[in-house]
């Protein structure tokens, strides 16, 4: 065998071995990445309903989620799709479906509802979760977990001082209409002193991101209103 053939054979063998190693590592890492992604989603869902604590171990997060959160799949008319779970739905293939999570107390009563929100900010798509209290009128909490907004400006949406403002705000007016919660420019107290329950302070220098947050919340609330409206009617009757 010529020296050239030996070199070629050696190179082919090395390439095959490297390809096998890379493929094996990629498959192993993919499973870990998917598990970490699921864990991060669960943390943010729990955070939106005020159940997550930073000191929790991963096993505690999963246990709390499994015991206290119930997933529902809805159509746009507010009908529950029986037998389906959020983790089994690919919204890119079924964009007309909505995913919702009920938060239960230790006695099994529904005390909050949370769902994903997303919208285009200044530089990126902003992703988060928005939760309503069990009365369906007041905000339980909000969290933003993925975005590419400017640090110190639009990036402030991920900070506690911004998110904590939403808790307790009202999404409906006296006539029962969905007015949502809006992020104002500057101080909400200064601009809406008699109507403060529907507004939170804005972020200085982040007008576009603030508007995006306001829009994504209202649009998503309106999308879920057929289901929430049914729940309100059931309670009223």
Can you walk me through this structure?
With 237 residues, the chain is α+β, with helices and mostly antiparallel strands. The protein has one domain (69-236). The chain is 40% helix and 19% strand. The protein is built from five helices and seven strands. The chain has helices at residues 3-48, 58-68, 160-163, 188-191, 207-236, and strands at residues 69-74, 98-104, 110-120, 125-133, 139-146, 182-183, 199-200. It has a five-stranded antiparallel β-sheet with strand order 1-2-3-4-5, sandwiched between helices. β2 and β3 form a beta hairpin. α1 packs across α2 (58-68). The protein is globular, with a radius of gyration of 23 Å. The mean pLDDT is 88.
Concise account of the structure shown:
It is built from five helices and seven strands. It has 237 residues and is an alpha+beta fold.
Features:
237 residues; alpha+beta; two-stranded parallel sheet
Topology order in helix (H) and strand (E) letters: HHEEEEEHEHEH
Going across the biggest sheet, name each strand in turn: 1-2-3-4-5
Work out the number of β strands.
Answer: 7
**Count of structural domains:** 1
């Amino acid at each position: 065998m010529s020296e050239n053939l030996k070199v070629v054979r050696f190179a082919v063998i090395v390439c095959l071995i490297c390809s096998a190693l890379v493929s094996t590592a990629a498959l192993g890492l993919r499973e870990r990445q998917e598990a970490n992604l699921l864990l991060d989603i669960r943390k943010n869902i729990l955070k939106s309903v005020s159940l997550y604590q930073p000191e929790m171990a991963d096993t505690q997060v999963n246990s709390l989620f499994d015991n206290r959160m119930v997933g529902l799949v809805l159509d746009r008319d507010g009908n529950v799709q029986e037998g389906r779970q959020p983790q089994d739905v690919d919204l890119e293939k079924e964009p007309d479906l909505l995913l919702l999570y009920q938060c239960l107390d230790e006695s099994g009563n529904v005390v909050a509802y949370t769902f994903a929100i997303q919208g285009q900010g200044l530089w990126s798509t902003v992703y988060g979760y928005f939760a309503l209290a069990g009365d369906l009128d007041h905000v339980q909490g909000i969290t933003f977990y993925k975005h590419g907004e400017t640090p110190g400006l639009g990036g402030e949406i991920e900070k506690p001082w911004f998110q904590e403002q939403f808790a307790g705000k009202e999404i409906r007016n006296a006539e029962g209409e969905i007015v949502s919660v809006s992020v104002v420019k500057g101080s909400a107290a200064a601009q809406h002193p008699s109507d403060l329950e529907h507004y939170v302070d804005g972020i200085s220098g982040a007008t576009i991101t603030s508007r995006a947050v306001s829009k994504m919340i209202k649009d998503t609330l309106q999308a879920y209103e057929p289901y929430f409206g049914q729940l309100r009617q059931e309670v009223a009757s």
